[in-house]
Amino acid sequence: MVRVLIADDQPMVRSCLRVILEAEPDIQVVAEAGDGVEAIDLVGRLRPDVVLMDVRMPRMDGIEATRRLVAGPVPVEVLVLTTFDVDEHVDDALRAGAVGYLLKDAATDQLVRAVRLCAEGKSLLAPSVTRRLIERLSRPEPRPSRHAFEELTAREREVLVLLARGLSNAEIAAHLYVGQTTVKSHVGHLLAKLGVRDRVQAVVLAYEHGLVAPGIAAAS
C-alpha cells in the first residue's frame, strides 16, 4: 500500500486529489496539509511514502519544504504537483530532492502512475518539462574538468556509477546497505561538486568523461 500525504493550500484541490488517489486499491491518502510547515509536521508523525507537494503555499513553500524533508530523518519521496510549468521551479524542485515534477492538468492515470513510480524512488517529469530538459542538455555549455570528478569521494563515485546503471534511490540504498536519506545526501553532494542541475546531467557527464562506459557500468 502506497501511503500519500497531499500538501496544497487549496482545500478543493486536496479533496479532488484524495478522490482520485483513493479510487486506487493500492493507494491510501493518510493526511492533507495546507502549507509546508504542516506537511513537515505530518510527515514526521505519519511517515507517508510519498508527498504530493504544491509549490506556492503560505508560511513555507513547497520547494523549501521539499528541501527540509529530503534532508530530514524520515525517508519520504516528494512529487511536486503544480500549475507552474517554469524551468526555475523545475530546477529548484529537483535540486531540493524531489523525484518527480508533474502539472495539475495531468491526466488521472498519469498522476496515479507518477505516485507509484515515486514511491519506488523512480523519477517522472511532465512531458513538457522533459522536452525542455532535453533541449537544455543538448545546448553547448561549460563542462567540468576531470579534476571535478577527482573531488568526488569513493562513495560518491560509487553512487554515480549506480545512477548510470539506472538504479533508483531505494535500489542504491539496498545495494550499498545504507538508508535512502544517505543516498539522497550523496547525490546532492556529487551534483554540487560537478556543478550540474540534476541526476540526468551527472550521468551524461560520467559517460562523457569515461567514468562509466556503456555495457560496463550495467554489468558492474
Describe the structure in your own words:
This protein is 55% helix and 13% strand. It has 220 residues and is α/β, with parallel strands linked by helices. The chain has two domains: 2-136, 3-Layer(aba) Sandwich (Rossmann fold), CATH 3.40.50; 146-219, Orthogonal Bundle (Arc Repressor Mutant, subunit A). The chain has a six-stranded parallel beta sheet, with helices on both faces. Strand 5 (100-103), helix 5 (108-119) and strand 6 (124-125) form a beta-alpha-beta unit. Helix 2 packs parallel to helix 3 and helix 3 (62-71) runs parallel beside helix 4 (87-96). The radius of gyration is 17 Å and the shape is globular.
Secondary structure layout:
Layout: E1 2-7, H1 11-22, E2 27-33, H2 36-46, E3 50-53, H3 62-71, E4 77-82, H4 87-96, E5 100-103, H5 108-119, E6 124-125, H6 127-138, H7 146-150, H8 154-164, H9 169-176, H10 180-194, H11 199-208, H12 216-219
Parallel strand pairs: 1-2, 1-3, 3-4, 4-5, 5-6
Q: Globular, elongated, flat, extended or rod-shaped: what is the shape?
A: globular
* SSE order, one letter for each helix or strand: EHEHEHEHEHEHHHHHHH
The fourth-level CATH homologous superfamily of the largest domain is Response regulator
Q: Spatial order of the strands in the main sheet? A: 2-1-3-4-5-6
Number of structural domains: 2
Helix content bin: 40-55%
CATH topology of the largest domain: Rossmann fold
CATH class of the largest domain: Alpha Beta
Strand content: 5-15%
Q: Can you name the CATH architecture of the largest domain?
A: 3-Layer(aba) Sandwich
**What value does the Rg take, in angstroms?**
17 Å
What's the count of strands? 6
- Main β-sheet description: 6 strands, parallel
- Low-confidence segments: 215-220
The helix count comes to 12
Structural class: alpha/beta
**pLDDT averaged residue by residue:** 83
- Oligomer state of the chains in this structure: single chain
Distance between the ends? 32 Å
